[in-house]
Amino acid sequence: MSFFLIVGIAVALAMDTFAVSIGLAVGLKGLSISQSFRLAFHFGLFQFLMNVAGWAAGENIVRLIEHYDHWAAFALLALVGGKMIHEFFEREAGKEKKYGSDPTRGFSLVVLAVATSIDSLAVGLSFGALHIKILYAAAVIGIVTFLISSIGAKIGPFLGRLAGKRAELAGGIVLILIGVKILIDHL
């Protein structure tokens, strides 16, 4: 498989991470350099790992999860998006916490990384069937995902300024809509 074909697949796989990066940057009114790096790093890492896992898992295991993988991605994105929307309404009602949760850390970050990399599992399976050198292909996918996610995190604040004080609400809605899109694409 050519380098350009692998890059094309990587770009397609990274579109969800791009949109989630924008959504988080909008919702948080910008991401620090460390937040952007953590987000992009984990998105790239999970795309890489899920691709390798799909390649290694074999056809039978992927068949077991393919019927509900889109539901899992939707649920995870809806969970994080719903949390952002809930925090927005708490803030509007004057119940803002002294310190908020950072979705670029801990469990939230892992949830987002898994949700946006589920499709990479199936791609890894197809790479195995085509006898593609998985480490090379998965590394290209991981690097492209890292770069595209970084771009999304960088342009998100500009979009956030357009949304004004409702940016967190907009970010949460974007995450839920990405989950809905994944669900519709697979139904």
Structure description:
With 187 residues, the protein is mainly α. The longest helix has 30 residues, at 134-163. Helix 2 runs antiparallel to helix 7 (134-163). It is globular and about 55 Å long. It has helices spanning 3-27, 33-57, 59-65, 69-92, 106-115, 118-129, 134-163, 167-186. The mean pLDDT is 83. It has one domain (3-186).
In total, the number of domains comes to 1
Broad structural category: mainly alpha
Form type: globular
Radius of gyration: 17 Å
Q: Oligomer, anyone?
A: single chain
Give the mean pLDDT. Answer: 83
User: Tell me about the biggest sheet?
Assistant: none
Low-confidence segments = none
* Secondary structure tally: strands: 0
- As a percent range, the share of helical residues equals over 70%
- Topology pattern, helix = H, strand = E: HHHHHHHH
Keywords:
single chain; 187 residues; mainly alpha; globular
Question: Secondary structure elements and their pairing?
Answer:
Blueprint: H1 3-27, H2 33-57, H3 59-65, H4 69-92, H5 106-115, H6 118-129, H7 134-163, H8 167-186
Helix pairs in contact: 1-2, 1-7, 1-8, 2-5, 2-6, 2-7, 4-5, 4-8, 7-8
